[in-house]
Specification:
Helix content is 37%, strand content 27%. It is of the alpha/beta class. The strands form three sheets. A six-stranded parallel sheet has the order 3-2-1-4-5-6, sandwiched between helices. The structure holds nicotinamide-adenine-dinucleotide.
Length: 273
């Protein structure tokens, strides 16, 4: 397999570490980074991840990625990178896994990537990320009549750098506090780095407007928990996942990276599950 990565931050580097840890290697790896990080990325790829790919390259634009002809591209860089790089890659016929799913709360961007995938005959893949049960939600979503309620709880420090800072005294918070109640579109717009799960649930199920979201800061929380319930005319279920935060980023649940690894494994192996 020829693999492309957009971004070389916490998720991308943890993913490469997991590939090495689980004995998964690829023919070719091309990493798209911001120009100012290209040299550093090249050095780190050679020093830390040489055994993950037979050949490695670093590029700073979508054209470079296209020339490398990856079989699968994984975006793990954020909203701006989805806007800049994902449409041309899809239009060129390459499948893309998007990790920054919250970016698709921007309706214009969602339609741009959907159109690009259709034009290129490529597939836009939205991984389950930090949560599970997306298979059932997506199946029930087609039947309609869904009510989906999601609650995301993280320790106060995971909400630093978000509008929660203006609503709560995060370092001094004494008790569990719900600071956002609204729909998934608003959650993903106001808390873009923390609302990927809300966006994933919305896209799989009832849509951005109809998916109800609560965001919570809890000083007792040791990791990031995601709870949601689904009511449909066909079935009801609820799920609660208590994730460890990723070592490199308190906002990111570590299972997200394993979920992306699953996308690669399912692509390479003889059985997809
Ligand atoms: N789907 C989920 O469940 C889920 C969970 C956690 C995080 N995420 C999302 O995954 C993304 C990556 O998270 P992370 O923890 O690795 O973040 P990070 O900040 O550690 O890494 C992002 C990397 O992307 C690079 N980058 C930014 N803009 C770029 C561009 N235009 N072109 C190329 N590279 C660019 C940055 O330099 C950085 O190296 C974020 O958008 C985050 O919201 C999704």
């Amino acid at each position: 397999m020829r693999l492309g990565l957009i971004g070389f931050g916490n998720i991308a580097t943890t993913l490469l570490g997991l590939m090495r840890q689980t004995g998964l290697s690829v023919e070719d790896l091309t990493v798209l980074t911001l120009p100012e990080f290209a040299d550093e990325t090249r050095t780190r790829l050679g020093a830390d991840f040489a055994d993950v790919a037979k050949d490695c390259g670093v590029v700073t634009g979508a054209e470079g990625l296209l020339s490398a002809q990856p079989d699968l591209v994984i975006e793990c860089a954020g909203h701006a990178a989805v806007t800049a790089h994902v449409p041309p890659v899809l239009r060129a016929g390459m499948d893309v896994v998007i990790v920054s799913i919250g970016a698709l709360a921007d309706a214009a961007l969602e339609s741009s990537v959907r159109n690009a995938a259709a034009e290129g005959g490529a597939r836009l893949i939205l991984p389950a990320g930090a949560v599970g049960g997306i298979d059932l939600l997506s199946a029930l979503g087609v039947a309609g009549g869904l009510i989906v309620r999601y609650r995301g709880t993280k320790p106060p420090k995971a909400w630093t750098g978000t509008p929660a800072e203006g609503l709560l005294d995060l370092p001094g918070l004494g008790e569990r506090t719900v600071f956002f109640t609204g729909n998934a579109r608003q959650a993903a717009t106001d808390y873009p780095k923390n609302a990927n799960v809300a966006a994933t649930l919305a896209l799989a199920g009832a849509g951005f407007e109809e998916t109800q979201v609560e965001l919570v800061a809890d000083p007792e929380a040791t990791g990031n928990s995601h709870e949601y319930s689904v009511e449909s005319p066909l079935a009801r279920y609820s799920i609660r996942i208590e994730n460890q935060a990723s070592a490199g980023n308190a906002k990111t649940s570590v299972t997200t990276v394993w979920s992306v690894l699953r996308e690669i494994r399912n692509r390479i192996g003889p059985v997809a599950v």
